[in-house]
Design the sequence.
């Protein structure tokens, strides 16, 4: 089936070429980082995790969100998601691959990565996260491959696949829960030491992932005759609305606990994010943008009239993804380190090579999803002739 | 970790629990007022820093840091704080104990440099999070060790340490000016991409010597020994003086103690009633 990704129009190939250029720049930067060390990033003795790990965290959510289409389709027999599931699973595959790459580029000794498996350590959450992510990738590859192959032969999927699909549902929840546990179990970092971190991660994931899926479905419909279906999009929009509402509710709970209890070591991280402390206010404009986008998104999505309108829905989904990307892909990780464990206010901002390496990982993710979506659309014979000229 | 797990298992009588549940409950089980001797054999090595003695000699800090960093080929990148690697260093007293909020403290402590290093916690969070067991608590004496050949450089231990005691090699330490022309027989240098920290001079302990920092102190400003030995110097110091530890509320059981006060010296100058107040209220 992979050969289907290897033929296409000149638009297809220019897109692929463009991605490859971005990837090449990032790979060159990574070789530089590998030679010189992580000193070329903005990371320091105080802020030891930054942009890479934050992207990883955001993308684990995107990966987990496939469950929002898989679960209604397979558990509740919600037929409208029939066409959407494959898009969701392919998005998950692409997101997990990006997650793994972000971990890989963050490692000081990437050549020793196998040590995680050579010395398996059940008391480390990172070990479980590796197991969960790896397993989730394998599950999604198996599921999407066999459903698509069966569809190509115009047969129903093999019977043994059903339990594998059912297993992927709790597995999806586990990847983001364990990722939250990476942070939430540390006495040293009061900002993350909150029981609501995992629920909040899941809520934000189930908002951002399906929002991204709606955007992708719109795009696919534009370039092909493949239509995920109006009902599917409407239902996904409702899922985004509920998940985003719950996420904002969870965030407000965190803010209340920190502000009302007035415990300095909890409050100070929120001050760093929203007001700045001791002149360190790098993230303040970002966090207010994120908050504003969240409010706007909720207004647009909760109102059934705007949610039902495609342009507004598109806008709402972009607002959700942007808001949550800022929250998780910037604020959440960095705020855990400022102030540091000695109460000192420190500065972090990513460097150009750090951003280029990150950008290239996103380009790899886009390349994977382009190839996979192309396969799916070709198998279904629905790629518009106009784009293949 | 092992001890606390064991303690928890005894308490709960469960053999199989979810990892998260176990971690949460075991942390609770180890929260105790005093020091709990390890269930395993032998020693519990600890360090006592006498801040009163250090207050008398401001030049000593530099000598102690120098002794450690020289003994362990720790790279010196000058003012480059971003890439800094340090095993032992000083911070003002109020920063070292920032969560304690000392407002009206004695002049001899105010802003005074205070030596910080790995606390060799009895319940170390860093070893708990390491995905490859490249850092672990040595069963025989409680020293928190590092294997620089196994570390994958994920820096999870740095994130988990509440004391800022761990350094990551952001760049090649061998390129630091102070390590140029290093004696090949000296303590091996590390490579870029791994985490390092104080190991209580395990190489010196193996030879029966005290840690380099302790050896650099001329008048017993630092004492090192086995807390499980009632006759040891560290036990005597902790029994006779009021000593504090950094952030004990986190349950990590740090094994570096700081003597800040000598109750007997108070008794000599203050009437009995005031001493009582000092002991009860803690307004030192």
Sequence:
């Amino acid at each position: 089936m992979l050969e289907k990704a290897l033929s296409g129009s000149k638009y297809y190939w220019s897109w692929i070429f463009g991605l490859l250029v971005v990837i090449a720049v990032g790979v060159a930067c990574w070789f530089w980082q590998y030679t010189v060390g992580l000193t070329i990033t903005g990371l320091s003795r105080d802020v030891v995790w930054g942009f890479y790990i934050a992207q990883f965290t955001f993308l684990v959510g995107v990966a987990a969100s496939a469950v929002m289409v898989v679960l209604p389709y397979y558990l509740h027999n919600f037929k409208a998601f029939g066409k959407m599931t494959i898009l969701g699973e392919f998005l998950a595959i692409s997101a997990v691959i990006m997650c793994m790459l972000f971990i890989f580029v963050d490692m000081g000794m990437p050549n020793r990565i196998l040590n995680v498996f050579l010395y398996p350590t059940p008391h480390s959450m990172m070990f479980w996260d590796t197991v969960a992510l790896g397993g989730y990738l394998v599950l999604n590859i198996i599921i999407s491959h066999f459903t698509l192959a069966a569809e190509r032969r115009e047969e129903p999927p093999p019977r043994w696949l059903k339990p594998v699909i059912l297993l992927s549902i709790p597995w999806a929840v586990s990847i983001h829960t364990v990722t939250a546990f990476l942070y939430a179990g540390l006495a040293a970092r009061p900002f993350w030491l909150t029981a609501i971190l995992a629920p909040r991660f899941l809520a934000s994931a189930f908002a951002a992932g399906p929002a991204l899926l709606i955007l992708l479905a719109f795009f696919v419909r534009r370039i092909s005759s493949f239509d995920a279906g109006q009902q599917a999009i409407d239902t996904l929009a409702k899922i985004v609305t509920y998940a985003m509402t719950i996420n904002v509710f969870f965030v407000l709970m965190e803010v209340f606990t920190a502000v009302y209890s007035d415990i300095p070591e909890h409050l100070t991280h929120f001050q760093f994010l929203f007001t700045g402390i001791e002149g360190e206010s790098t993230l303040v404009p970002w966090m207010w943008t994120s908050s504003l986008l969240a409010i706007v998104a909720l207004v647009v999505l909760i109102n059934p009239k705007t949610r039902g309108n495609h342009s507004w829905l598109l806008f709402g989904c972009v607002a959700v993804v942007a808001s949550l990307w800022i929250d998780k892909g910037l604020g959440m990780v960095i705020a855990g380190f400022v102030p540091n464990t000695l109460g000192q206010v420190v500065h972090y901002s990513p460097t150009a090579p750090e951003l280029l390496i990150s950008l290239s990982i996103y380009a790899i993710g886009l390349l994977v999803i382009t190839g996979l979506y192309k396969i799916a659309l070709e198998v279904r014979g629905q790629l518009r002739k106009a784009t293949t000229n | 970790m092992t001890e606390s797990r064991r303690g928890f298992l005894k308490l709960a009588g469960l053999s199989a629990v979810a990892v998260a549940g176990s971690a949460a409950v075991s942390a609770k089980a180890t929260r105790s007022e005093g020091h709990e001797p390890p269930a395993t054999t032998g020693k519990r090595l600890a360090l006592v820093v006498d801040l009163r003695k250090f207050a008398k000699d401001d030049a000593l800090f530099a000598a102690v840091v120098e002794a450690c960093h020289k003994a362990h080929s720790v790279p010196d990148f000058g003012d480059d704080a971003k890439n800094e690697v340090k095993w032992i260093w000083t911070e003002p007293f109020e920063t070292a104990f920032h969560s304690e909020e000392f407002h009206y403290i004695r002049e001899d402590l105010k802003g005074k440099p205070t030596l910080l290093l790995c606390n060799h916690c009895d319940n170390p969070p860093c070893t708990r999070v390491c995905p490859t067991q490249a850092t672990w608590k040595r069963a025989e004496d409680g020293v928190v060790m590092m294997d620089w050949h196994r570390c994958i450089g994920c820096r999870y231990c740095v994130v988990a340490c509440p004391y800022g005691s761990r350094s990551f090699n952001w760049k090649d330490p061998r390129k630091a000016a102070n390590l140029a022309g290093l004696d090949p027989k000296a303590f091996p240098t590390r490579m870029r991409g791994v985490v390092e920290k104080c190991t209580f001079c395990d190489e010196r302990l193996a030879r029966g010597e005290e840690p380099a920092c302790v050896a650099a102190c001329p008048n017993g400003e630092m004492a090192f020994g086995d807390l499980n030995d009632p006759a040891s110097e560290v036990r005597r110091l902790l029994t006779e003086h009021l000593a504090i530890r950094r952030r004990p509320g986190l349950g990590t059981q740090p094994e570096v103690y700081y003597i800040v006060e000598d109750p007997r010296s108070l008794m000599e100058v203050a009437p009995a009633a005031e001493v009582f107040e000092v002991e009860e209220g803690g307004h030192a």
